[in-house]
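User: Reviewer 2 asked us to show a designed sequence for the structure in our supplementary figure. I'm pasting the structure tokens here. Could you produce the per-position amino acids so we can include them in the response letter?
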């Protein structure tokens, strides 16, 4: 003995002639089944509209120039920052160790930006570090005798002069500051690749 299907359950096979066909309507904002993503496009799930907002990255040329400024800042931190008679005082005695570290970080961020991966945070951090390096260089220039000990300063009087490393630190940190500000301001929108 066969029983007919319950009245609430749909029939299998094509509907009989003359009966309306039922198709569920998609809710608003629903785009059906997720499709495989195209190259460079984000994957979306059920019911999520596709985002048209794209991340903007800093121009790669700015990153490579920032790398150069960072390397120059590292080199300047190792050079003499003061000269007492004919004796050089290394930059690592004063704030050179800090600016050397800042130069390493700025150079690393320059590589990241140069490889087209640098988002806004990299340029902002490089800008802050470069500004701090400028302040350190200016503070050491204003008080050059602080790079020598007190006994040398008393004995030698005004014979302490600014070394090449301190001048180079100022120039490199100003260059890094300018480039990082350009990196913040000049960020073109990325175009979709097909």
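Assistant: Here is a per-position design you can include in the supplement:
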């Amino acid at each position: 003995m066969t029983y007919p299907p319950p009245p609430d359950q749909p029939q299998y096979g094509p509907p009989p002639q003359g009966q309306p066909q039922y198709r569920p309507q998609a809710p608003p904002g629903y785009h059906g089944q997720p499709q495989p993503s195209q190259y460079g496009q984000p994957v979306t799930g059920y019911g999520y509209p596709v985002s048209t907002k794209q991340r903007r990255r800093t121009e790669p040329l700015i990153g490579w120039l920032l790398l150069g400024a960072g390397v120059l800042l590292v080199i300047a931190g190792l050079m003499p920052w003061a000269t007492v008679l004919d004796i050089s005082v290394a930059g690592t005695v004063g704030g050179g160790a800090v600016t050397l570290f800042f130069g390493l970080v700025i150079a690393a961020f320059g590589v990241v930006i140069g490889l087209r991966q640098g988002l806004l945070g990299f340029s902002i951090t490089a800008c802050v570090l470069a500004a701090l390096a400028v302040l350190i260089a200016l503070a050491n220039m204003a008080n050059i005798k602080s790079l020598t000990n007190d006994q040398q300063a008393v004995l030698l009087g005004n014979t302490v002069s600014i070394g090449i490393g301190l001048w180079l630190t100022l120039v490199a940190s100003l260059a890094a500051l300018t480039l990082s500000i350009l990196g913040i301001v000049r960020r073109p929108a990325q175009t979709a690749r097909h």
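For the response letter, you might also mention the following. Residues 60-185 form one domain. The first helix runs from residue 60 to 78.
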